[in-house]
Amino acid sequence: QVQLVESGGGLVQAGGSLRLSCTASGTFSPLSMGWYRQAPGKEREFVAVMRWSGGHTYYADSVKGRFTISRRNVVENTVYLQMNGLEREDTAVYYCKLTSAGYGVDYWGTGTLVTVSS
User: Fold this and answer.
1) Cβ atoms of residues 111 and 94 within 8 Å
2) Containing H/E element for 14?
3) Residue 116 to residue 88: CA distance in whole angstroms
4) Coil vs helix vs strand at 118
């Protein structure tokens, strides 16, 4: 069983920064780990992803230049999302997603709330 635990959400003023983390446990081989978010009344949307082999990263246009996805190393199944220059529009529940190699199964965390105040 794969479990994802997110942390680091909270309340921040516009222009501020937060760092989210997501740690995966269980038996798996990650193909990628990434972040999605869901704002009130909106659908869940892609934020950023890291391909585990090679470490290539991809971002939604809305966060490019402000958010950075990273990991400490290949062995530790932890991914971070450094969020700078936060805007009110970034307010959402942020979810971590792991896609496993092989069958490409997706696993989701329970989410962490980020609230940006003006």
Assistant:
1) yes
2) none
3) 5
4) coil
Asked if residue 17 lies in contact with residue 9, where contact means CB atoms within 8 angstroms, the answer is: no
Amino acid (1-letter code) at residue 112: T
DSSP annotation of 27 reads S
Q: Please provide residue 111's backbone torsions phi and psi, each rounded to the nearest 5 degrees.
A: 100, 155
Q: Which residues contact 11 (CB under 8 A, 6 or more apart)?
A: 115, 117
In the chain, helix, strand, coil percent, each to 5? 5, 55, 40
Residue listed under structure tokens 């896609």: 99
Specify whether the CB–CB gap between 22 and 4 falls below 8 A: yes
pLDDT averaged over the chain? 95
- The answer to whether the CB of 52 falls within 8 A of the CB of 33 is yes
Contacts of 53 (CB under 8 A, 6+ apart): 31
DSSP state of 100: E
The rounded distance, in Å, linking the Cα atoms of 62 and 86 is: 11
How do residues 7-63 score in pLDDT, each as one tens digit? 999 999 999 999 999 999 998 889 999 999 999 999 999 999 999 999 999 999 999
